[in-house]
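Batch manifest, entry 17 of 40.
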Amino acid sequence: MNRPQVVSPAEWEAARAELLVREKEATRARDALVAERRRLPMGRVMSDYGFDAGDEVFRTYFAAGR
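Output type: structure tokens
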């Protein structure tokens, strides 16, 4: 396995700062994509949905304060 190069603290900080810029760009791009997804039009649900777990499961879940 190839290991990363060992560098001085100053070199590491410079490399980390460059990576941080790219990470922030990626985060902003992901946030924009998620916002676009939330703006998609909604569609009407045309069928009935049922749950097989029973009402007690839902009461227990919501009573736990989740």
